[in-house]
Write a structure and sequence with these properties.
This protein is α/β, with parallel strands linked by helices. It is built from eleven helices and 13 strands. The protein folds into two domains: about 180 residues, Peroxisomal Thiolase, Chain A, domain 1 (3-Layer(aba) Sandwich), CATH 3.40.47; about 130 residues, Peroxisomal Thiolase, Chain A, domain 1 (3-Layer(aba) Sandwich), CATH 3.40.47.10. It is globular and about 60 Å long. Bound molecules: acetyl coenzyme *A.
Length: about 325
């Protein structure tokens, strides 16, 4: 049995900043509402024609992570790509990253677990490393939301939240068994699948021919639907539960956490969790203010920024936690 550690991190966000005031020119919203309810000040959106896609953004983040891991792309044994916004219906973006990076014939797996996607992907990588199957695994979370949002007042409760971006990590075999990913914890509750969902272009029993013939501009099934308050109530409970589960498994107390990186869903959710566990501002990292909710990309982007800012040091206990559509949720406990 081996240990696995995060040996390299990287992120990429499009240069185009979209402020709350910019959104208020497209729909009936305002900076005060958005900041008060979500903490978001701005987010990044791709610009039409710039060529950024979920896969290409993932590649950009991956290149940084691979370089920082100090390995060659040929050393990557496996790729796991988490997203809810793949470039194609199939194949998934894992193989596109493989193509772009020129990595030959290693396995590429796509994970579809929305905001928890990165935790699920990390957990898969962790198992493959711990069992000695692979030595270096590239894990990517990338999301292109802006091209699929309803940017009218009809969609405002959802559209103001999401942003585009990608984060990546290289997970590497670690011989020192006191360091690395200590445990991961995954959950889901399919009973609430429709509370936060994008039901098209999934066919769901529909015929493509009928969908194309209908060509209905008012078909909201092409936009994400979210029962915001219900999601919020479940999120605060599940975040807390799954963090506690990880701490208990490793005989840790909330006070042992050096850095909690919550999935950046809503600043109020992060603050609730922070308060519940009695954590100081230094123990929790948030960057939703700058990027909005980038779903599967939010944890690797935040983790990379926290690391780049020197907020994570060797030996630190780092806890990652996420909750999102499915519902799915999970956590990871890491000794850095
Ligand atoms: N600007 C101005 N007013 C708005 C906006 C907006 N952008 N959006 C909604 N409103 C209005 C509503 O119309 C409503 O008005 P009314 O009272 O006159 O009817 C009022 O504001 C309140 O709307 P709510 O939807 O009840 O607002 P709420 O306080 O619940 O905040 C939010 C909405 C921010 C979406 C919140 O519910 C939330 O963060 N939920 C959790 C999101 C989450 O964690 N998602 C999980 C991850 S995402 C994933 O997995 C894909």
């Amino acid at each position: 049995m081996y240990n696995s550690k995060i040996s390299g991190l990287g992120y990429y966000v499009p240069a185009n900043v979209v402020t709350n005031d910019d959104l208020s020119k497209m729909m009936d919203t305002n900076d005060e509402w958005i900041q008060e309810r979500t903490g978001i000040r701005e987010r990044r959106h791709v610009v039409r024609g710039d060529g950024d896609t979920t896969a290409t953004m993932g590649v950009k983040a991956a290149k940084v992570a691979i370089e920082r891991a100090g390995i060659d792309k040929e050393d990557i044994d496996f790729i796991v790509f988490a997203t809810l916004s793949p470039d194609y219906y199939f194949p998934g973006p894992g193989v596109m990253v493989q193509k772009e990076l020129g990595i030959k014939t290693v396995g590429a797996l796509d994970v579809r677990n929305q905001c928890s996607g990165f935790i699920y992907a990390l957990s898969v990588a962790d198992q493959f490393i711990k069992t000695g199957v692979y030595r270096n695994i590239l894990v990517i979370g990338s999301e292109l939301h802006s091209t699929g949002l309803d940017m009218t007042t009809r969609g405002r409760a959802v559209s103001v939240i999401f942003g585009d971006g990608a984060g990546a990590a290289v997970i590497t075999r670690e011989e020192d068994n006191t360091r690395g990913i200590l445990s991961t914890h995954l959950h889901s509750e399919g009973e609430h699948a429709e509370e936060l969902a994008l039901t098209a272009p999934g066919m769901g029993g529909r015929w493509v021919k009928d969908i194309l013939e209908d060509n209905d501009p008012d078909d909201v099934s092409y936009y994400p639907h979210m029962n915001g308050q219900f999601v919020f109530k479940n999120a605060v409970v599940r975040f807390s539960e799954v963090i506690m589960e990880g701490l208990k498994q490793n005989n840790l107390q909330p006070g042992d956490i050096n850095m909690l990186i919550p999935h950046q869903a809503n600043l109020r959710i992060s603050q609730f969790v922070q308060q519940k566990f009695g954590l100081s501002d230094d123990q929790v990292f948030n960057n939703i203010q700058k990027y909005g909710n980038t779903t599967a990309a939010s944890i690797p982007i935040a983790l990379t920024e926290a690391w780049e800012e020197g907020k994570i040091k060797e030996g630190d206990i780092v806890v990652l936690a996420a909750f999102g559509s499915g519902f799915t949720w999970g956590s990871a406990v890491i000794r850095w």
